[in-house]
Amino acid sequence: MSQFRLVKIVAAREFLLRLRSKAFLASLVITTLILLAIIIIPTLGGDGEPGPIKLGTLAGRANDLQAAIADAPSDSDVQFTTFATRQEAEAALRRDDVEAVLLGGDEVLVGKAGFLDQSTVPDIVYVGSRLLQFQQASSNSGLSIQELAELTQPALNIQILDEQDSNIARTIIAYIGMMVTYLAILMYGSWTMAGVMEEKTTKVVETIVSTLRPRYLLAGKVIGIGALAFLQIGVLVIAGSIAATTTGILSDFGGLPVDSLVMLLIWFIVGFSFYNTLFAATGALINQIDDAQAANLPLSLVAVGSMMTSYAALNDPNGLAAIIGSYVPLSAPFVVPIRYALNAIATWELALTLTITVAFAVLAVLTSGRIYEGALLRSGGRVKLAEAWRGDS
Amino acid sequence: MLQFDSLSKKYGDLQALSEICFEVKPGRALGFLGPNGAGKTTTMRSIFGLVRPDSGTVRWHSLQITSEARLRFGYMPEERGLYGRMKVRDQLVYFARLHGLSAALARTGADHWLKRLGLSERSDERLDKLSHGNQQRVQLVASILHQPDLLVLDEPFSGLDPIGVDHMKEILLEEVGRGTAVLFSSHQLDLVEDICDDIAIIQNGQILRYGDLATEQASAGIQRVDVVGPPEGTWTSKAPGSIRYEFNRVKDQHRFLISQEISAREFLDFASAAGLVSSFSYTPPTLEDIYKETLR
After folding, report:
1. Of A17, A203, A205, which has the smallest distance from its Cβ to B86's Cβ?
2. Nearest CA to CA, how far is A112 from chain B (Å)?
3. What's the pLDDT tens digit per position in B151-202?
4. Do A202 and B68 touch (CB under 8 A)?
5. Are residues B123 and B72 in the same domain?
6. CA-closest candidate to residue A269, choices A333, A332, A215
7. What ipTM does this complex have?
8. Pick from B50, B52, B94: which is nearest to A206 by CB?
9. What are phi and psi of A240, to 5 degrees?
10. What residue numbers bound the domain in which B129 lies?
11. Domains defined for chain A, CATH in brackets
């Protein structure tokens, strides 16, 4: 019987037990819904069959603007209602029966002021008003409306030096990836910590480590919970891809950036492995559930700080914070995928930081394993790091 | 065979174990006795690598104990340790598989034991929904489902009701009958006397007495004498070879612990001189007698 087979048994338990838990199911459903909302909601506005734009006019007021609006090119139908009096028109406006009322001349009445400098006047009214201006200018000057329209456009031919930099899809993937990495590291980290604490406080661990060396128990735990994290991310990626393809949102922005996704995945595995074992070691140092919050804090703060650094990298991928963040192993898994997605990292830089971070991850896993092993079997108060390291049980 | 060879362990200034030497043999049960804090749990934990001795070794069949060897061991720690939120049957299957059993064998074994303990209907319930006694039964099964060659139980009888005690006793004796080497600690000396072939008594980290129970009883150099008849008087305080004396008011019985040098005939003559003796017994010492004499 190899220890490897036992690791598999432990990993399977960690995976299946949580897979069946309500907490996992809830987190899976909620994160998937949030992602779908992020993708689908912005596309709703331009989709489907929008209703006609309803405008009001007053009886007996000659209205050039109305005629211009009716002539203006538009995707939507415009429906006019004529009101006998201004009071009737105002009442209809309050009931939202119409969006605006043309009072005659250039006067337009709307229900309320817009937010900041946004106007609540329908776009079609602006277009109509513009058209009216062109028509009047055309009859005054003898130029055609077409010629006038050309005159008012800037005559510039703009070329973009680095087409890739403006790839919105890559930014979106990087941003969502960063958030998911952050949430997964914190959430699954706290699950691992809680699991380690449960085993320690209930002394289950004494029964288990009689046949399985603590570091293998740790490995099984991290692998099982890691598989769960992967499952969740897999569901997110598949649901997100289907939604993005169906709504066509990514094709608008240049298609699915596969290399960027792969990079995210690599950094996720590296980051998850060492963060998760560090959380496990933290859990092993604790003897009472009451201490968990305090013990959890340093590592959580590091994750929050790393996330903020990667946010800074999103805004300025070549800034000092982004560059330093790429070489600090704790923040690299958050920062590097962002810089990669934004094409702001050279290949040699990528190779260097990946080497540094993987080396750190190996060291962190070994160190955590030793601390975990040393601390696990000690009880009575919080275990000091040095004692755990020496492992004097 | 499990062998402790000069095992020593110090925690700071406290000498927890001092040159521990004894053996646990296949097909025999060894009762591990001693006051609280004497070093029983520390000794047992050393078998499982949970305590690293300063010097000395623990061996199984003359070999250093590895994780591999421990697959064939069963352990029930004093502070019971199972997953409270895991289902009873899943839990048993899990621990059996951690001891190397295939999933199918583990499931068959779990069902067999749950049925035997009358817990079949509760096999899909969370462990923490069971009563304390039932949880302890499940814990016992978790330590023996894989049919270990060595079974180590720390205070297996504590907290059990009389029926639970009988179950536990029955199962332990079965394990011994199967050829398992059984080591368990207990304060219930009458139970130990019923089950154990061998005993080891520890105090302050030192083994004070170790050996076959019958031999220890014969070689302790003491005898128990119970007398009913003569009233309490000067004869009781001046009895020949008396080491300890107490009067049992309920049974109206004088209980003596005396030196083996005094024969039954001698003592009976002495007692008869004090009055008519209606009941007289001259027997080897009980385990409790030996225990108290050893720790005196």
Report:
1. A17
2. 58
3. 999 999 988 889 889 989 999 999 999 999 999 999 999 999 999 999 999 9
4. no
5. yes
6. A333
7. 0.81
8. B50
9. -65, -40
10. 2-213
11. 3-41+166-390 (no CATH), 53-152 (3.40.190)
